[in-house]
């Protein structure tokens, strides 16, 4: 038997198409403040220019943007101390949504800086390394990059060929890294190399003899992002260039897990931008004498997109609360990255169909987000790798080899 309340219930809030599940109710005022601050910055500094940057295939003001993001506290924002904001995992996730709603390249700049380069130094570096690099990186004065992927070894980093050998009291590095975000503008590179004692991480300052970072051109995705190759030819480093607390693959993989968490949120930002564009277009574009949003097939598309978008945001929020509680597992990050990027791409493609031919124009963000997400789908772990991570967790059987 269902009981009825003795007093009238409070009036239900109106349905909000921008927040159909009422997810904002899960956020504290300080969470909303972070989100709104980053959203306002992106609207002012990125959105008016991003189509032009994308078309030109460059991010000409990357150093200026890095300093502004540092002033916002967005670089290494979930790290503690050394000039970092010490924000919650959920707040960092909300920032990633707003950055990627502007462009995946901007979120990648922040993710690589904070979740890869700074995180590696913060977690595995010496106190001297942390004091030397982290405050300047948090302020955006120094940009960092993360060198793990190689030309012939992406999903299998254990097979890397970059080597570091001891020579007296120094280390000497030889090898190449590929598809490195921020590479050619970085003041310091976190480079992972094979040594006689196993895989180790090294801090390579820009300008070190034998080290260069030529930019990769002719990209059709993440065009408003700096992507480079790292070339190490007899790079000599002092003994204190090694990250002392990182030994084996567990070091770089833990950094990747932190970066993947940001992608779980960020992909929903790109999806949200496309959905909002499609919804606005559907209510203003007329065919056969009325708005196309009044046709059943268009409404079905919009409904399905809204469901997957807000399910993805709810999943990201859940994982963020688990991270803040110290209970987030790598398999759960794979769950989020696999689902949210895959659904984000589908939302972008469906949005393109609603816009018709206009969907391929840079006057709208849809095609730009769709092509960017093709990179997001495979970096920080391909679909297949995350499927196998979950498959192993579910069955207890390792199918990687």
TrEMBL record:
Q: Which branch of life, at top level?
A: Bacteria
Recite the UniProt keywords alphabetically.
FAD, Flavoprotein, Oxidoreductase, Transit peptide
Any keyword Oxidoreductase?
yes
Which residue ranges does the record assign to the Acyl-CoA dehydrogenase/oxidase C-terminal domain?
A: 247-394
Which parts of the sequence belong to the Acyl-CoA dehydrogenase/oxidase N-terminal domain?
29-141
Q: Which residues does the annotated region (Disordered) include?
A: 1-21
Q: Which Pfam families match?
A: Acyl-CoA_dh_1, Acyl-CoA_dh_M, Acyl-CoA_dh_N
- Renumbered to this chain, the Pro residues biased-composition regions fall at 8-17
> Which cofactor does the UniProt annotation name?
FAD
Any one biological process term the GO annotation gives = fatty-acyl-CoA biosynthetic process
Question: Which terms in the Gene Ontology molecular function aspect does this entry carry?
Answer: fatty-acyl-CoA binding; flavin adenine dinucleotide binding; glutaryl-CoA dehydrogenase activity
Q: Which PANTHER family match?
A: GLUTARYL-COA DEHYDROGENASE, MITOCHONDRIAL
Return the similarity comment: Belongs to the acyl-CoA dehydrogenase family.
Protein name in UniProt: Acyl-CoA dehydrogenase family protein
Species of origin: Streptomyces tagetis
